[in-house]
Write a structure and sequence with these properties.
single chain, alpha/beta, binds 1,4-dihydronicotinamide adenine dinucleotide, binds magnesium ion
């Protein structure tokens, strides 16, 4: 039996293009793995009323990890209108399959490395090496939201928080509340993973990026837990910054930072900014990582206008494969893949359109495979 069973979920649009690219490289890497295809995306929403069919969830439960391409998602009304006639009017609600997978498998780490590979004309600077740990399951994206706010909720808030008095006169339909929910466990585990990563990969600092001077309770909890955990890692220094200042510094001195750890929404924003410093969507890979399962993906979407044209940059996907190899403990193979990717970028001959070239998605993958 192969050592690993890996699910391949291409999804929609260019998710398929970049998954084909990944397969060229995976073939060359010759991992001791069995690859299984898993259904996900718009087609399954349209025809089955579920973008993440139960058979996919069952299949993933028997896998070591998964590689995901991208999916298409659309607003509620449009989604309903595209259902096959038999499924319309049944109250089916489209829900993002990737968000559901993160929750279902408790993939609490969103790992977003942003490294400038020398020779990439899209680099903001050539000496950037950032690794962002974004909490992936709670915070402002917990999904606890109200509009209108039920009277009972309002009364409880007014009874327990003097700050609510300012909103006492706001009409029911004019008030909306989204809860920013942090748990001690959630803070601890994301910070611990960040420190472990810094230690294992030789980074000397971890910066906790929050806003405890204003969002006292949630950001405060995160920062206090970070201080506690930092005590277990004497070789790694803890830096504390406020998110607003941090994004300025990332533009001013990105080379000064290495591992950053933050909550869900701040991480969403900071990681997109960081990705753009090193080439943008064509280079932004990510890992959704739990304690015993993980899903790796490029962070771009399905880019419908390029679907099936093999024009887009597969580097984000190939870097996601590299993250997967790291997570599997295949450090040598991961390093070999990263060197091959860096080599192709440095040589500058095989480039997709976003880098100013005219090579295809698959030609880039082949160039990487040849160097392996
Ligand atoms: P997108 O990321 O699909 O594409 C935006 C633009 O970025 C593209 O038109 C293209 O110019 C460029 N781009 C994206 N990937 C690239 C690559 N690998 N190489 C070179 N250029 C690249 O975002 P958009 O257009 O906002 O969304 C399209 C669909 O994807 C929507 O349905 C959206 O909901 C979905 N989406 C899915 C995500 C996921 O599966 N994780 C993430 C973001 C969006
Ligand atoms: Mg995002």
């Amino acid at each position: 039996m192969p050592k690993y069973r890996i699910a391949l979920m291409p999804g929609d649009g260019i998710g398929n293009d970049v998954m084909d690219a990944a397969q060229i490289v995976l073939d060359k890497i010759a991992l001791d793995a069995e690859y299984v295809h898993a259904d996900i995306g718009w087609e399954f929403w349209r025809t089955e009323g579920d973008a993440l069919p139960q058979r996919t969830v069952d299949l993933l439960k028997g896998c070591t990890c998964a590689l995901f391409g991208a999916i298409t998602s659309k607003p509620k009304d449009e989604a309903e209108a595209e259902l096959i006639p038999e499924l319309r009017g049944k109250g089916l609600v489209y829900r993002s399959p990737i968000v559901r997978l993160r929750q279902l498998f408790d993939l609490y780490v969103n790992l977003r490395p942003c490294k400038a590979y020398p020779g990439n004309p899209l680099n903001y600077r050539d000496d950037i090496d950032l690794v962002i740990f974004r909490e992936n399951t709670e915070g402002l994206y917990s999904g606890v939201e109200f509009h209108p706010v039920p009277q009972a909720v309002r009364e409880v808030l007014e009874a327990h928080s003097p700050a609510m008095a300012r909103f006492a006169d706001v009409a029911e339909e004019d008030l909306a509340i989204s809860c920013r929910i942090f748990t001690r466990r959630g803070c601890r585990r994301i910070v611990r993973r960040a420190f472990e990563y810094a230690q294992a990969h030789g980074y000397s600092t971890v910066t906790v990026v929050e806003k405890p001077n204003v969002i006292r309770e949630t950001s405060g909890l995160m920062v206090r837990e970070a201080r506690r955990i930092a005590a277990d890692f004497p070789d790694v220094e803890l830096w504390e910054t406020n998110v607003d200042a941090q994004v300025m510094w990332l533009v001013k001195n990105p080379q000064d930072y290495s591992v950053l750890v933050t909550s869900n929404m701040f991480g969403d924003i900071v990681s997109d900014l960081a990705a753009q410093l090193v080439g943008g969507l064509g280079f932004a890979s990510s890992g959704n990582i739990g304690d015993d399962f993980a899903i790796f993906e490029p962070t771009h979407g399905s880019a419908p206008k390029y679907a099936g044209q093999y024009k887009v940059n597969p580097m984000a996907m190939l870097l996601a494969v590299k993250l997967m190899l790291d997570w599997l403990g295949e450090r040598e193979k991961a390093q070999a893949l990263e060197s091959a990717i860096a080599g192709v970028i440095a040589e500058g001959k095989v480039r997709t359109y976003d880098m100013g070239g005219s090579s295809t998605t698959l030609e880039v993958a082949q160039a990487v495979a040849e160097r392996l």
